[in-house]
Design brief:
homodimer, 200 residues, alpha/beta, Dihydrofolate Reductase, subunit A, five-stranded parallel sheet, four-stranded mixed sheet, 5 helices, 32% strand, globular, RibDG_C (chains A, B), 5-amino-6-(5-phosphoribosylamino)uracil reductase activity (chains A, B), Dihydrofolate reductase family protein (chains A, B)
Chain lengths: 200, 200
């Protein structure tokens, strides 16, 4: 059964996916570049990852089982559409208020959805078929969680205290939120990979 | 070589050791009671822990190697001095502005220090001898970290989002703070035990 997951969201020990004023990315994403095993990138703008063997084994398995992504318009714009294709080499569903002018038609790289998170996830599920859907960005993850659409939370926990910034689920409404697991605990060397199931 | 550590500090996935308005303790400390292996308590007021086998193996090893604790006066008062002896069965050094009236003398249960964190840790080191010193409470951990006295951070990571409350190191001054490790990653079943080394 395919699932909807946040994938491997890199987070600081104090719960931030970005530091104050968009700082801390060098510290958070150090594990993307300090290993021995290369993971190819399908994006012309994003270099391959170089991660530890333990991290690579997990990412390869999960990437192979991911059939579509859901992202927000902000991430799409900020990355300049990853130069045309997402690094994970899958179709990316972009939730937006308005389709960008330079992409009048959906294609195998990008699909645009303008009528809300449920529709975006449904469209991604169609594209993914038997495979999983990964949701990227705190705001998208929050909307999925609050709409009851999220099955799994994936965290790549990095040993740094950032002291502020953007949290895993952004401005989450009702708390506490409980999870089961972790179903996966992998020591990636300087990063700990954890997978939790949303309790429904 | 003995070290100064926060021990096993229970923390939510979003980085809180207590929820908003002192809530969330039932969720945070569920792992203290939902396992099969009993860990005795030396406190007449605190029941034994019942934790998973994996958690028990770690706690037993660490408790056996802990020679003294450092706590703040707030925790001492809040727990009513644990009824006379800390559950971990070690001497507890209490950092306070003023010695409590009902304890005119230090003894094997409690030692009072009024002249700051460096003095409290030094006193605890004397008591601990070859063993480790554990520092409890966010405010004590913060003071130790900022004074360069902390060697290790121990986290028992629990899969709940609390959305606010008290953070691991309280109102920490300079950020970011970097750690090495984790040196330990143990899946305790619903709790993940992590040990990090303070980068100096």
């Amino acid at each position: 059964m395919s699932k909807v997951t946040t994938g491997a969201t890199t987070m600081s020990l104090d719960g931030y996916i970005a530091g104050p004023e968009e700082s801390g990315f060098d510290l958070l994403f150090q594990w993307y570049g300090d290993g021995d095993v290369e993971i190819p990138s399908a994006s012309p703008d994003v270099p391959p990852l170089r991660v530890s063997a333990a991290s690579a084994e997990l990412l390869r398995r999960e990437w192979a089982n991911t059939g579509a992504l859901v992202v927000g318009r902000r991430l799409y714009d900020m990355t300049n559409a990853w130069g045309g294709r997402h690094p994970m080499n899958v179709t990316t569903v972009v939730l937006t208020h308005q389709r960008p002018d330079d992409r009048p038609e959906d294609d195998e790289n990008f699909v645009f959805v303008t009528d809300g998170i449920e529709s975006a996830v449904a469209r991604a599920r169609e594209v993914a078929g038997e495979k999983d859907v990964a949701v990227n960005g705190g705001e998208m993850a929050r909307q999925c969680l609050e709409a009851g659409l999220l099955d799994e939370v994936g965290v790549a926990l990095v040993p740094v205290i950032l002291g502020g910034g953007k949290t895993l689920f952004g401005e989450l409404g009702p708390v506490p939120v409980l999870f089961d697991g972790p179903s996966t605990v992998i020591d990636g060397g300087g990063v700990t990979h954890l997978r939790y199931q949303v309790r429904k």
